[in-house]
């Protein structure tokens, strides 16, 4: 009587279906990056979306902290008059020089404005409501779209990555951030109305590339506030992947109360709740961007 040979463990593993992530693509295990031998010049990444409440500031804080955890020297630039990034990292925003002073030229050296944080390897240039007056000030400035680029050029050699947290608009401040950047990361809430504005933002990036910054590229679209329990979240994510393909990152940030809790504590999630899945999601994001070369 003939017998069927038992497949080996390796054979069974090879025959097993590949696990799919929320984006419907096979899950990639991005490796822990190697330590860098030297710093700078930094790659500058703008986190941009003209819709508010999509996770730009949360992503800037937690991506910055995760990159720092992997040995990168990171500068986070608060470029939003609401100053949420500064508050989320627990740094002073009043009675200290801010990004506004650098933009209007009352302070020339960014190193006089940079503050350390409670995260080793992560520094911040703070902002406050004064920044809302910058657009009026910049109207009559020569090469007004390039002012932030000139500011950051002075400290690029001090860092590996510079993250710019943009305000929710496509005004002159956001154009400055895009002109200064090498790449753009678009946090996108998994909600229908958030999806509608992405095409306009991509069009704006194309215009900036054509007219102001030919080197800028889209580093990725990051789905945020995803809730796998709702059909709406799943459908929006499916539509984003259908529309933008590989531009959509594999990492997906799920909705959790831990993010507002960490914000209240003025701490990144990887310090506030280091073993929480949300902390691992941002570590995965850091690894993915490094593997793509966007934050190497």
From TrEMBL:
In this chain, the stretch annotated as Disordered covers 1-29
The UniProt entry's coiled-coil ranges are none
Q: Which InterPro entries match?
A: AAA_dom (IPR025669), DNA_Partitioning_ATPase (IPR050678), P-loop_NTPase (IPR027417)
Q: Which Pfam families match?
A: AAA_31
Residues annotated as domain AAA: 43-217
Tell me what this protein is called: Chromosome partitioning ATPase
Lineage of producing organism: Bacteria, Bacillati, Actinomycetota, Actinomycetes, Micrococcales
């Amino acid at each position: 009587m003939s017998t069927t040979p038992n497949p080996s463990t390796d054979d069974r593993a090879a025959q097993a279906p590949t696990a799919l992530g929320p984006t419907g693509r096979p899950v990639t295990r991005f490796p822990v990056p190697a330590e860098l031998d030297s710093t700078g010049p930094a790659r500058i990444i703008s986190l941009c979306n003209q819709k508010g409440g999509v996770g730009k500031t949360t992503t800037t804080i937690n991506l910055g902290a995760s990159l720092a955890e992997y040995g990168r020297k990171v500068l986070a630039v608060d470029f939003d008059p609401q100053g949420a990034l500064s508050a989320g990292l627990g740094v002073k925003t009043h009675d200290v020089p801010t990004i506004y002073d650098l933009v209007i030229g009352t302070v020339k050296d960014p190193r006089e404005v940079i503050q350390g944080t409670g995260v080793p390897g992560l520094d911040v240039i703070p902002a406050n409501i004064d920044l809302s007056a910058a657009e009026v000030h910049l109207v009559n400035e020569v090469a007004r779209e390039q002012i932030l680029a000139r500011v950051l050029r002075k400290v690029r050699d001090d860092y590996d990555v510079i993250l710019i947290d943009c305000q929710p608009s496509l005004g002159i401040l956001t154009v400055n951030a895009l002109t200064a950047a090498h790449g753009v990361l678009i946090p996108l809430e998994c909600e229908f109305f958030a999806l509608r504005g992405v095409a306009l933002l991509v069009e704006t990036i194309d215009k900036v590339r054509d007219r102001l910054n030919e080197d800028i590229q889209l580093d990725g679209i990051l789905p945020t506030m995803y809730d796998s329990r709702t059909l709406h979240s799943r459908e929006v994510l499916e539509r984003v992947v259908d529309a933008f393909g590989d531009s959509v990152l594999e990492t997906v940030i799920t909705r959790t109360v831990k993010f507002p809790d960490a914000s209240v504590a003025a701490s990144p999630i990887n310090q506030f709740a280091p073993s929480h899945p949300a902390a691992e999601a941002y570590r995965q994001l850091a690894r993915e961007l490094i593997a793509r070369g966007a934050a190497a």
